[in-house]
Amino acid sequence: MDIVIEQIASSEDFAAMLEVWKQVFEYEMGIKLASDAATSAHTVSHLLARLGPSGPVVGTLGVFDTSNEHQLHESLGLKFDRQSRVARFMHLAVLKPYRGMNIPLMMMLEAHRGVIVPRQFDYTWLLFDVEKAARSFLSRQLGFKPLRQTFISEYGCRCPLVREEHTPEAELFIQQAERYLKRRESVYALTGVSPAGAALSLMS
């Protein structure tokens, strides 16, 4: 079954997103998100990953506008011009049975295409596990650069990952990531196995 990435469009979508959060953050990681985490005034979009056009939701990604949160940026060592348009990625989560299927990469690319580009953000950033940041798909496939600053949060030791959007380098990374996904889709098509089927077969 194909993976479909879309922006939240209904109350049912919203409830499905919260259920993924509960499964991943609360039950798996032992972290209870703030009650207003999904309805912040800075929310730009929430994206969902589905199994097929009307299938169950198995992944989420939030995009938040932090352009005017200068104190937050400074506290994390993020040196953005005050006039810059800045977006933060948060709540990247995929249900355990569906990991290893490039769903986070798909969501990040759709967020770039459907949110970051049309809203003309200059920078995007997120906090990530400091031990995994440099070798994560975000750095290797999407061109995010780890900063040296580290911070302790409820998620553990984190560092900021930052990407300047309007650069040839960022554009090249996006193109390479899109080509990578197309190649993976071709492999699945040749073998007659869908991405979801391939991932589930590896787990059985």
Task: Write a concise synopsis of the structure shown.
The chain has six helices and eight strands, in the order βαββαβαβαβββαα.
Describe the protein's architecture and organization.
There is one protein chain. By secondary structure, this protein is α+β, with helices and mostly antiparallel strands. It has 6 helices and 8 strands. The protein has helices at 11-28, 70-75, 103-116, 137-140, 168-191, 195-203, and strands spanning 3-7, 43-51, 57-65, 86-94, 123-129, 145-146, 151-153, 156-164. Strands 1, 2, 3, 4, 5, 6, 7 and 8 form an 8-stranded mixed β-sheet that branches. Strand 7 and strand 8 form a beta hairpin. The radius of gyration is 17 Å and the shape is globular. The model is unreliable at 188-204 (pLDDT under 50).
What is the topology?
Blueprint lengths: L2 E5 L3 H18 L14 E9 L5 E9 L4 H6 L10 E9 L8 H14 L6 E7 L7 H4 L4 E2 L4 E3 L2 E9 L3 H24 L3 H9 L1
Keywords:
eight-stranded mixed beta sheet; 37% helix; 8 strands; single chain; globular; disordered C terminus; alpha+beta; 6 helices; 204 residues
How big is the Rg?
A: 17 Å
Mean residue pLDDT: 89
Instruction: List segments where confidence is low: pLDDT < 50 over at least 5 consecutive residues.
Output: 188-204
How helical, in percent, are the residues?
25-40%
Shape: globular
Q: What's the number of extended β-strand segments?
A: 8
Largest sheet: 8 strands, mixed
Structural class: alpha+beta
- For the terminal residues, how far apart are their CA atoms? 17 Å
Proportion of strand residues: 25-35%
Q: From N to C, what is the helix and strand string?
A: EHEEHEHEHEEEHH
Total of DSSP H or I helical runs spanning 4+ residues:
6
